[in-house]
From TrEMBL:
SUPFAM superfamilies in the cross-refs: Copper amine oxidase, domain N, Zn-dependent exopeptidases
Organism: Paenibacillus antibioticophila
Gene3D superfamilies assigned: 2.60.40.3500, Copper amine oxidase-like, N-terminal domain, Zn-dependent exopeptidases
Keywords, sorted A to Z: Hydrolase, Signal
Protein name (Swiss-Prot/TrEMBL): MurNAc-LAA domain-containing protein
Signal peptide: 1-24
Region annotation Disordered: where it falls in the sequence: 145-183
Keyword Repeat: no
Length: 479
């Protein structure tokens, strides 16, 4: 496939890998596509540059059959797959995906006739599930049609959900950041309870994932205490695990420094049953996930389940406003206000894809909603464009989302008081890959002085949050 095109260029993808060691060799790294190991040609081998594993997209492009074009003059790579068109320019960290500017963790580079681009970024934009097994040094790519529930991954822990996510090129914690981080001093599992010792207040984000069944606990703004490795298994890449044999519901507890910026410790319980447990966090230094408590998984109680997705977060600021504010902060503020309103709704259950400044990947966000069989998915964003563009837009991808888009847009226009820029169809990862009606709301333009002045006010955010909840209720017939 596409071998002629490939003569022009070799792609290599970024894959952040050994954030602690920086320049570890990646010679033993393998790539599996839908469970099949890719044979890498001599000039398509995985590389590691500055702590990021670079993998040969050329191989993936050939295997996946994407259409690739390389314009030498402008140093632009165009990658097309079905209705997604991605333009990447060497040394520019902003990509154009279907005309929308998206920030990449690192800019594509030209290294001796080879264009290198970020793997996770490309994979997710193209709807692939991308994961990394740090122990096996293996990248797993799963196409939407090719996945069979994660069983294709050889070895243990192939889901990669505790690996350091690609895209983080930082080596270790930034100077000056250390003081603000909570230290995870210990993790233990006994009496069917997970216990996490921390030295500062932490607000965990708990969610479940299926196939295989897991409970994931993200601890934002945390790191492992310096003394942690003396008491617990922790390898040089800040990954470790505890085998659980005495409690039949859990097979393993895995933990890792999941992200460097913001520093996030992730703990994953590999479950033998579908269960989430109750989180007990009294900010007394001990966070407990109690599996003895029968807390049903959201949506399994007959209520309608809504997933609210605050766009971007963590290392991904989203758009930057004319006054230097970050889109991710607007998205989260509105999302938390929506949460407060949804708590009052007796017939609606909800799950947030993030409730603090963290960055779940696009495929994580989709997976949360799909695994839970959510009834609705609503992603909250703000837009950027020319200085004169102003107003609100509602995006959807699949036709079954149109009715939801129309209802949500009606309330978005009314509650924001901004110009109606219409309901629009676009291939966006989160609205395309979700399996339930899904929309992405652009609640105004951060690049517009007038819109921007409103978006960060409590009043505007309160009104938009109320509008979103009204839209949800109308669509679900819960008025
Ligand atoms: Zn956005």
């Amino acid at each position: 496939m596409k071998k002629g095109l490939a003569a022009l260029l070799f792609f290599v993808m970024w894959f952040a890998l050994f954030p602690q060691t920086g320049q570890a060799a990646a010679g033993g790294t393998s790539i599996y596509l839908d469970g099949n190991k890719l044979e890498l040609s001599k000039n398509g081998q995985v590389q590691n540059i500055n702590g990021s594993v670079m993998i040969p997209i050329r191989v993936v492009v050939e295997e996946l059959g994407y259409v690739v074009d390389w314009e030498k003059k402008t140093r632009t790579v165009t990658i097309q797959q079905q209705d997604t068109v991605m333009k990447l320019v060497v040394d520019q960290s902003t990509a154009l995906v279907n005309g929308t500017k998206i920030q990449m963790p690192v800019a594509p580079k030209l290294v001796s006739d080879t264009v290198i681009v970020p793997l996770r970024f490309l994979g997710e934009q193209m709807g692939l599930s991308v994961s990394w097994d740090n122990q096996l040094k293996t990248v797993y790519l799963v196409t939407p049609a090719g996945g069979n529930g994660g069983e294709t991954s050889p070895g243990d822990g192939g889901d990669g959900d505790t690996g350091t996510p690609p895209g983080d090129t930082d080596s270790g914690t930034q100077p000056g950041q250390t003081d603000n981080l909570a230290n995870v001093g210990g993790i233990s599992f006994s009496d069917n309870r997970l216990m996490i010792a921390v030295d500062q207040n932490v607000t965990p984000n708990v969610f479940t994932m299926a196939n295989p069944q897991r409970v994931v606990i993200d601890l934002p703004n945390t790191k492992f205490a310096d003394t942690f490795s003396s008491g617990y298994h922790l390898d040089s890449t800040q990954n470790g695990f505890i085998d659980i044999t005495e409690y039949p519901e859990v097979s393993k507890v895995r933990y890792s420094l999941y992200n460097n910026n913001p520093s996030t410790v992730r703990i994953v319980l590999d479950m033998n049953v579908v269960k989430m447990g109750e989180l007990i966090n009294e900010n007394d230094g001990l966070i407990i996930l109690d599996l003895n408590k029968e807390v049903s998984i959201p949506g399994s109680n007959g209520k309608k389940l809504v997933v609210i997705d605050a766009g971007h977060g963590g290392k991904d600021p989203g758009a930057i406003s004319v006054t230097g504010k970050k889109e991710k902060d607007f998205n989260l503020a509105v999302t938390l206000k929506v949460q407060e309103l949804l708590k009052k709704e007796t017939n609606i259950d909800f799950v947030l894809t993030r409730s603090s400044d963290t960055y779940p990947s696009l495929s994580d966000r989709v997976k949360i909603a799909n695994d839970l069989n959510a009834d609705l998915f609503i992603s909250i964003h703000a837009n950027a464009g020319s200085a004169t563009a102003s107003g609100v837009e509602t995006y959807y991808t699949r036709s079954e989302s149109l009715a939801l888009a129309k209802v949500m847009h009606k309330y978005l226009v009314a509650s924001s008081g901004l110009t109606d820029r219409g309901v629009r169809s676009k291939s966006l990862h989160v609205t395309r890959e979700t399996k339930m009606p899904a929309v992405l709301l652009e609640c105004g333009y951060l690049s517009n002085k007038s819109d921007n002045a409103k978006l960060y006010t409590e009043d505007f955010q309160d009104r938009v949050a109320a509008g979103i909840v009204k839209g949800i209720k109308e669509y679900l017939g819960l008025q």
